Amino acid sequence: MTLVRVRQHVNPLSQRYQVATPAPAWDRVFQHPLQPLHVDIGCAKGHFLLAMAQQNPTWNYLGMEIRQPLVDQANLKCQQLGLTNLHFLFCNVNTSLASILAPGAIAGATVQFPDPWFKRRHQKRRVVQPQFLDQLSRCLQGDGFLFVQSDVLAVAQEMVERIDAHPHFTRRADSQSWLPTNPFQVMTERERVTLDQGKPVYRCWFDHQGSQEMSDRS
Ligand SMILES: C[S@@+](CC[C@H](N)C(=O)[O-])C[C@H]1O[C@@H](n2cnc3c(N)ncnc32)[C@H](O)[C@@H]1O
């Protein structure tokens, strides 16, 4: 058995992650490429999507992850399970959303337990930056959704403040305070560990609206 070293954290701002990843051939990665697409950002080992894809065969699922060994392992698992509505992609979402996903290509997105980067000087490495939300908004359909959760209150608050400040996202009525449960009823790796330790999770659910053209605030 070959042991692959998986780094604990990867700095998304380092030079080697600045090259935009091209889109895969969608008709090769999904059996039915026109099904609605749900993208999980920073999917790690992909446990969440492996379960979602089995439960919802009429949706396609794309996991985006910056640690390549995790992506390779997740795609292997996907193959072993014979799933034709799931694919994992090695990329830096902060540089590659626009090169991978066409405007309006996705029906929904999740950002779950993003790396917290606690030190102040490292916080610009966090995934949910204003520019990321502009790009995500371009890729989301007019009636798409965005679900975010974290076990770190400050990270959850920062994500929610940034999403609230974006003109094309609105909190769902049930998300005016933190959602008590995960609406997908499928746990991520990090969510399971957090709940097993009896710790709280901070969750929020947004509707996306507006045309892709309006989403481009730049
Ligand atoms: C704390 S883990 C959470 C994993 C999973 N979502 C969960 O809830 O268990 C955050 C993941 O996001 C990935 N990640 C961080 N920055 C990223 C980026 N810019 N692009 C893609 N993936 C990223 C990390 O490599 C890591 O696997």
Automatic annotation (TrEMBL):
<dbReference type="Pfam" id="PF02390">
    <property type="entry name" value="Methyltransf_4"/>
</dbReference>
<keyword id="KW-0949">S-adenosyl-L-methionine</keyword>
<dbReference type="InterPro" id="IPR029063">
    <property type="entry name" value="SAM-dependent_MTases_sf"/>
</dbReference>
<keyword id="KW-0819">tRNA processing</keyword>
<comment type="pathway">
    <text>tRNA modification; N(7)-methylguanine-tRNA biosynthesis.</text>
</comment>
<dbReference type="GO" id="GO:0008176">
    <property type="term" value="F:tRNA (guanine(46)-N7)-methyltransferase activity"/>
</dbReference>
<comment type="function">
    <text>Catalyzes the formation of N(7)-methylguanine at position 46 (m7G46) in tRNA.</text>
</comment>
<dbReference type="InterPro" id="IPR003358">
    <property type="entry name" value="tRNA_(Gua-N-7)_MeTrfase_Trmb"/>
</dbReference>
<feature type="binding site">
    <location>
        <position position="151"/>
    </location>
    <ligand>
        <name>substrate</name>
    </ligand>
</feature>
<feature type="binding site">
    <location>
        <position position="65"/>
    </location>
    <ligand>
        <name>S-adenosyl-L-methionine</name>
    </ligand>
</feature>
<feature type="binding site">
    <location>
        <position position="92"/>
    </location>
    <ligand>
        <name>S-adenosyl-L-methionine</name>
    </ligand>
</feature>
<feature type="binding site">
    <location>
        <position position="115"/>
    </location>
    <ligand>
        <name>S-adenosyl-L-methionine</name>
    </ligand>
</feature>
<keyword id="KW-0808">Transferase</keyword>
<protein>
    <recommendedName>
        <fullName>tRNA (guanine-N(7)-)-methyltransferase</fullName>
        <ecNumber>2.1.1.33</ecNumber>
    </recommendedName>
</protein>
<dbReference type="InterPro" id="IPR055361">
    <property type="entry name" value="tRNA_methyltr_TrmB_bact"/>
</dbReference>
<feature type="binding site">
    <location>
        <position position="40"/>
    </location>
    <ligand>
        <name>S-adenosyl-L-methionine</name>
    </ligand>
</feature>
<comment type="similarity">
    <text>Belongs to the class I-like SAM-binding methyltransferase superfamily. TrmB family.</text>
</comment>
<feature type="binding site">
    <location>
        <position position="119"/>
    </location>
    <ligand>
        <name>substrate</name>
    </ligand>
</feature>
<keyword id="KW-0489">Methyltransferase</keyword>
